[in-house]
Amino acid sequence: MHGADPRLVLGLHRSRHHRDLLTAALDLSVTALDTAAPYLGFRSHAALTEAAADLLPRFTLSTKVGFFPSAGGAEHSLDPVRLRLAVERAARELGREPDTVLLHNPEQSLTGLSPADGHALLGDACTALADAARDGLCSAWGVASWDPRPLGMVRVHGLPSPDVLMVRAGFLVGIDLLDATTVLRTAWRAGETWGMSPFGGGHRKVWEEFDPRPFLRPPHDDLSRVQAAFRAAFHLPSASAMAVGTDNPGHLAQLVQALGAEVDVAAVSQYLRTLHGHRQS
């Protein structure tokens, strides 16, 4: 079952890429990093090697391609040639092949296209990443999508099946997105599902008003609301890993502690039924 052995992935979206955070992560047995070519002003890969080239072999490393600098600032692209070059560049900048390369928000490039044109464009992009994995430029490939609904509209059946599907997770994800993820990963026969942004971008006030601890099996008195929200996110949708960003080793330690809690799956199922009921009413 997804989420039976939950893994924490240290996300570097808003990180300063400091060495002390990476050493703290290793001390906590957090050995997975997730970044992207455009993070830190398109310097994430170089910054990692500058700060901690000697530490990187101790991590499994995922990165994302498909978002490029441009004259207007930045642009999404599913051009297979650009994607291939981006994967090759990532390996050079990191000083090693990444373990997983993810297509970065491909839905941004599908807006306004017919389902047939979108299917062809997405198919070429996925083939480029699958070929990169076959050629040893990465061990696995996948798709990171902030909004999976447009991907389902282009009919992914018949396209290369991603090893990883990364999507938003947690209580702040609407039922439409949760349902779209379920449909997409089934139709696409995706391998693992990874969650991201379990706190919805840092809306801490939410957890002052909403207590997610009843979604955990007791005893859970020693866990905070934020810890409970993080742990329950592994079932919203069901996921085997969760990418979460922080520059605070103390916060990271709290999230690691939360991994040991057990989620009340029946309570989560009832929550989802309630969301479906509200949508239909």
How many β-strand runs?
A: 10
| Shape type | globular
**What is the CATH top level name?**
Alpha Beta
Order of helices and strands: EHEHHEEEHEHEHEHEHHEHH
Mean pLDDT: 93
Rg: 19 Å
**Which structural class do the helices and strands define?**
alpha/beta
Strand fraction equals: 15-25%
CATH homologous superfamily designation: NADP-dependent oxidoreductase domain
Terminal Cα span: 31 Å
Strand order of the largest sheet: 1-2-3-6-7-8-9-10
Contiguous runs where pLDDT drops below 50 for at least 5 residues:
none
Question: How many domains in all?
Answer: 1
Major sheet size, sense and barrel closure = 8 strands, parallel, barrel
The CATH architecture would be Alpha-Beta Barrel
CATH topology: TIM Barrel
**Estimated helix fraction:** 40-55%
The tally of helices reads 11
What does this structure look like?
The protein is α/β, with parallel strands linked by helices. The chain has a single domain (7-280), classed as NADP-dependent oxidoreductase domain (TIM Barrel, Alpha-Beta Barrel), CATH 3.20.20.100. Helices cover 41% and strands 17% of the residues. The protein is built from eleven helices and ten strands. The strands form two sheets. The protein has an eight-stranded parallel barrel, surrounded by four helices. The chain has a two-stranded antiparallel sheet with strand order 4-5. Helix 4 runs parallel beside helix 5 (115-134) and helix 9 packs across helix 10. It is globular and about 50 Å long.
